[in-house]
Amino acid sequence: MSIRFKRERSALPGLALSLAILAAVGFSMVLTAQLLWMQLVDRANYTFANVLGVPGRNRLLLSVAAGLALPPLVALLVLLRPRGPGLRGLHRAAVIVSPLLLLFVLPGLFLSQVAAGKPLFYLIVLSAFGLSLRALLSASLAARAEGQPWRLRQWLRSRPLVARLGTLQLPTWVALLFVCAAAAGYAWFLGAHAVAHHRLIQTLDTDVGIADNVMANLASGHLFRAPGYFGTAPGNYLTVHTDYSSLLLLPIYRLHPGAEILLRLQAALAALSVIPLFLLARHLLGQRMAVWASFAFLSLAPLHGALLYNFSWMPLFCLFSFTLYYAVLTGRRWLSLAALLLLLASSEMAPLAVLGLGVFLAATLKKTRTGIGLALAGVAMFALNTAVATHLAGALAAP
């Protein structure tokens, strides 16, 4: 044993790092198991405000301490064996399992309470999680490939069919069909649960009720009247939100008027946004990453909370935004024009988004004419929205 340590003395500084990684992995796995074992309310309270009862906290601390100590002890016992893996082998094993360091973050990312209560903190954590996971996965895959047995590599090279499985490329329509099937299931599941929440009086009346009130007035020929928002006072919904695109979905609303159809429409529009997102990601990153990007969008916890508890036309904003990005980057002029008009009509935030896209294109992608045109369109629509809201407010205030 001492002879091997002397021979691997150059690797001794990595021993502490390897043991620390294994201890942190044990901590992460135990904490994840504890979080998943908790009831949803307790998990949200602990993640959001670090609130946990005394018995629960003692149990958590004891289990986490065991998770910290056990993996390094097992690693040292394996290392002390005469035919153990050695310091370099231990370090390679620690690097391979290092992505599990971030496992404890996942339960908190799927809590809508955290996303809604601390959105900036949530986005920072989400960004840090993605960047860290990418780095750890790269290191893990590199360490695994480095230690791959020579005979296994030779066997893979002698089997062309097996070697091609890792680079198998499905036809685009098959990948898109797979994503659409997942989106359809997503729309049905979240739409049904949103309706169930609504029937249990768990949706926000200030969002769902007002939107239903506006749509009911549109169906009756009263353009953007909103007594649910203004009460008995005169008022027009366009002075608050310029959701002109709600007129597009009026025929569907007429088929079954009410809040439930709006909640199902919202889930369907969110799911439909995956199609232009898939095409955009495929153009920029390739087909495999496009599938992963689509599933990442469908797994976004803040979106789930928004679809279950309130209503807005923001899914239309996402749908037309992704479509515009894809059309502009691929040079589809008519699709770009249609997506631009629909996007500008979808929300009062759309002009700012179009302006930002135009500045970005002109500054970084050298599409100067397109960028300037989009920027001017955004400014013009912002001025129009301001003029309409000012005119309507002035007309209603006049005696």
> Helical percent range?
over 70%
The shape is: globular
Number of DSSP helices? Answer: 22
Structural class by SSE content: mainly alpha
SSE order in H/E notation? HHHHHHHHHHHHHHHHHHHHHH
Rg, Å, rounded: 27 Å
The main β sheet shows up as: none
Overall mean confidence score, pLDDT: 82
Strand content: under 5%
Quaternary form: single chain
Number of strands: 0
Overall description:
The protein is mostly helical and 399 residues long. The chain is built from 22 helices and no strands. The protein has helices at residues 2-7, 13-37, 40-49, 54-80, 86-96, 106-109, 112-117, 119-146, 150-157, 160-165, 172-199, 205-219, 227-230, 250-255, 259-272, 274-285, 287-298, 301-309, 314-330, 333-344, 350-364, 368-397. Helix 11 packs antiparallel against helix 16 and helix 16 (274-285) packs parallel to helix 19 (314-330). The model is unreliable at 161-166 (pLDDT under 50).
Quick rundown:
The chain contains 22 helices and no strands. It has helices at residues 2-7, 13-37, 40-49, 54-80, 86-96, 106-109, 112-117, 119-146, 150-157, 160-165, 172-199, 205-219, 227-230, 250-255, 259-272, 274-285, 287-298, 301-309, 314-330, 333-344, 350-364, 368-397. Mean pLDDT is 82; it is low at 161-166.
